[in-house]
Amino acid sequence: MKLLVCVKQVPDLESRFKPDPSGQWYSETDLAFRINEYDDYAVEQAVRLREQLGDAAELTVLSVGPDRVVEVLKKALAMGCDRAVHVQDPAPHLKDPWQIASIIAAYARSQQYDLIFTGFQSQDRGSAQIGPTIAELLGYACTTTLVGFSFADGVVTATRELEGGLKGVVKMKLPALVTCQLGLNVPRYPTLPNIMKAKKKELETVPVANLLQEETRIATESFYAPEKKGGGMVLEGDVTELVNRVYAILKEKTPALRQ
């Protein structure tokens, strides 16, 4: 059984962002990068299934991006993936979700994977379109926002998070694709022995031009921080005092109350 898990490298959200010289994206200077949070759950679930199936399965991890994404591929290998594929693209942010999905689908089609795992969405772009679009391009069954997963007799049983705290259960035959959500599992930390073993695992590099030839369909017009607005005011004291102070402030700022 051939398994694929797709991961993305994103900037640490605690970083301080500023536009790059082009004004179309953020500058990577002084930014720390990490694996996308939702992809961590996807990797963990894929590794658990790999362990369940034993030698009957092979698990590949794939990422699209510049040379720095090799770090998240190495982490996934240390977590238990068998091999890695780096689709080398120096500027993936210039491609729309359709193109990124097309790149992944082109590689997946050539390998005929039985089950594909992705994160629910990326933390930087947040479109939540990549997984379902890959499934559509491949003609795979698909279900999203998983918080529960099991596999037996060629059938995936997925528990989905719905609106209003409700959950739904979906059963799918292979081939299929699932997107993973917070709460699905607890991702493991790579151990030192597994980190050392990961260095000997296969890491294939594929130029993005081998998988996608079409031109970019969309372009970012600008990237900028929102304008600063006036701050709020915190009032402390007993209720009577607060009422009087609030009324005084409103009277000062609202012409109708001054009449």
UniProtKB/TrEMBL annotation:
CDD domains: ETF_beta (cd01714). PANTHER family: ELECTRON TRANSFER FLAVOPROTEIN BETA-SUBUNIT, ELECTRON TRANSFER FLAVOPROTEIN SUBUNIT BETA. Keywords: Electron transport, Transport. Coiled coil: none annotated. The keyword Electron transport applies. This is Electron transfer flavoprotein subunit beta. The keyword DNA repair does not apply. It comes from the Bacteria. Gene3D superfamilies: HUPs. GO terms for molecular function: electron transfer activity. Residues 23-215 form the Electron transfer flavoprotein alpha/beta-subunit N-terminal domain. Belongs to the ETF beta-subunit/FixA family. Pfam families: ETF (PF01012).
